[in-house]
Structures are given as structure tokens and as C-alpha cells.
């Protein structure tokens, strides 16, 4: 069994220098070339380098210090660099583009367009490939998340209900339209909060913390904002929801609750033209 993790980062020792780069110790996989253009200055035999391993045009293992946009086992939104009779090739930040066979495309991929894909090793050819059939690579296990838990999500696709997202690079989740107060696009990475894990294992999410904690947290943010702006903000509960979101990243409902909270604590006064610090 090879200890080299293909399509991932590996810590490998430099064993010898040659005119065109250095060779790294790949144990049973033999010596792996790191071409000269990627060799950090001052590198010498015995040094340990953190390198990404993939296959060159001749299907040989090769190392790079470039950072690809995605590793094997991950999802990403990538742009199509070119298309031929075998499939599409995506720009993933390396010299050799990432192959998506036709059978792994949901619709025929077009040059210049971006698609959410999963990157994995093809079992037959042992090549690194991508698939747009994302749902095949999401976990079917029920996640252990708790309501209110913060998670990382990547926007996958828009639906009538809201936005399908990939949660923690593993699970399927949904942000409903009424929970979204900002424009979202496929490939965007966000922090979200778990509302509930449904019996089918799918996760309902929101972009803000639920309930009172959210208002308490935002009350402090709003108070600090007013202090930082000479004790006054022209934004009040009549302000446009979009303006409130662009300024603070919260819904108008959360904003109004926080204003009420500060007013009750007699920290601010409400004026015709805005909110002033007491």
C-alpha cells in the first residue's frame, strides 16, 4: 500500500538535486520529481518539504509547491478551461487541468462556466478526476450536529425552496429563502448555524444565530458601532432592510430587537433622524 496520498499534500524528504529540480523520497513509489520552478530557494538534501502530489502528462507522480484550489475528497466550484471529445477540463490552479469525463457531467459543461464538483480518485485508472454529480459524494450518515452549532458551508445550487449547500465538506444542507438576506452564488463559502437535523439526515440552516443570543450579540455590535460613529447613526427601524443587512449583516428583525434592547437599557434615545447614544 502506497504511503503517498495522491491529490493531497505530503511531507517528503529531499533526496537529491538535479539540474531540473529535486527528487523527493516516495518510498515504495520511488523518487518523485519536484520541478525546478517549484523548488524553494536554499532547498538541500535532507530537507522536508510540504508538497502537493498529482500525475503529470505521462501519468507519473510529480510534486508541486503550488496550492491547488481543491484536494482529493473535497468539493469546489471550478471554471472550465477547455472541452474535448472525452470531457471537460477544469482550472484547479495547477499546470495540468482537472478532468471531468462526460459520464460525470449533469449537463454538457461549457468553456468559461463554473460548476460545483467533487474531486476523487478514479478507481479504475487511479487518476484524479472530478464529478458534477455532487449528491453521489455526500454522506448518507446522519450528522451529529446540535441546533445552534456553527458550521462551514459551501453554496451548491439555488432551488425553489432556497439554496442547497454542502456542510463541512460532507453533508447536504438547505438555507431557506426567508433565512437569506444577501446575494448567494454557487461556490461561496459561509459560516452558518444549524436549525435542525431532519430525520433523513439533511440539515436546515440559517445564516444568523437563533433567538435571544443573536440579539444580545448584535446589541453589543450596534452599541459599539454607534460609539465609533460619534454617538449617532442615521439608521433606525424605518431603514431599508437591504441597507441594514449591507451595514451589519443582520436582518431588519434582529436590528429592531437590538434597538429595543438598547432603548430599554436606556443606552440610546430614538430620534426622528436616527439613534443617538445617551
From TrEMBL:
InterPro entries cross-referenced by the UniProt entry: CvfB_fam (IPR014464), CvfB_S1_st (IPR039566), CvfB_WH (IPR040764), NA-bd_OB-fold (IPR012340), WH-like_DNA-bd_sf (IPR036388)
Signal peptide start-end: none
Pfam families referenced in this protein's UniProt entry, alphabetically: S1_2, WHD_CvfB
Domain Conserved virulence factor B-like winged helix: residue ranges: 220-277
All residue ranges annotated as the Conserved virulence factor B first S1 domain in the record: 6-65
UniProt family annotation: Belongs to the CvfB family.
Protein name: GntR family transcriptional regulator
Species of origin: Phocaeicola plebeius
Organismal lineage: Bacteria, Pseudomonadati, Bacteroidota, Bacteroidia, Bacteroidales
Amino acid at each position: 500500500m502506497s504511503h503517498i496520498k495522491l491529490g493531497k499534500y505530503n511531507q517528503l524528504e529531499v533526496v537529491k538535486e538535479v539540474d531540473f529540480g529535486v527528487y523527493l523520497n516516495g518510498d515504495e513509489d520511488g523518487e518523485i520529481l519536484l520541478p525546478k520552478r517549484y523548488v524553494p530557494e536554499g532547498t538541500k538534501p535532507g530537507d522536508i518539504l510540504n508538497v502537493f502530489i498529482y500525475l503529470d502528462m505521462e501519468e507519473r507522480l510529480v510534486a508541486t509547491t503550488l496550492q491547488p484550489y481543491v484536494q482529493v475528497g473535497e468539493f469546489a466550484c471550478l471554471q472550465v478551461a477547455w472541452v474535448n471529445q472525452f470531457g471537460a477540463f477544469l482550472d484547479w490552479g495547477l499546470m495540468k487541468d482537472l478532468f471531468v469525463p462526460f459520464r460525470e457531467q449533469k449537463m454538457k459543461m461549457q468553456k468559461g462556466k463554473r460548476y460545483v464538483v467533487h474531486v476523487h480518485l478514479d478507481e479504475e485508472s487511479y487518476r484524479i478526476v472530478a464529478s458534477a454529480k455532487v449528491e453521489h459524494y455526500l454522506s448518507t450518515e446522519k450528522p451529529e450536529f446540535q441546533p445552534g452549532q456553527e458550521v462551514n458551508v459551501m453554496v451548491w445550487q439555488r432551488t425553489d425552496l432556497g439554496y442547497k449547500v454542502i456542510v463541512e465538506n460532507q453533508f447536504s444542507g438547505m438555507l431557506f429563502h426567508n433565512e437569506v438576506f444577501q446575494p448567494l452564488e454557487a461556490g461561496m463559502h459561509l459560516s452558518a448555524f444549524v436549525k435542525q437535523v431532519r430525520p433523513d439526515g439533511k440539515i436546515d440552516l440559517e445564516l444568523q444565530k437563533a433567538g435571544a443570543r443573536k440579539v444580545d450579540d448584535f446589541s453589543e455590535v450596534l452599541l459599539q458601532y454607534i460609539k465609533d460613529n460619534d454617538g449617532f447613526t442615521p439608521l433606525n427601524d424605518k431603514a431599508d432592510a437591504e441597507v441594514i443587512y449591507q451595514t451589519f449583516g443582520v436582518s431588519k428583525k434582529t436590528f429592531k430587537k437590538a434597538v429595543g434592547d438598547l432603548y430599554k437599557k436606556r443606552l440610546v434615545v430614538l430620534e426622528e433622524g436616527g439613534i443617538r447614544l445617551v
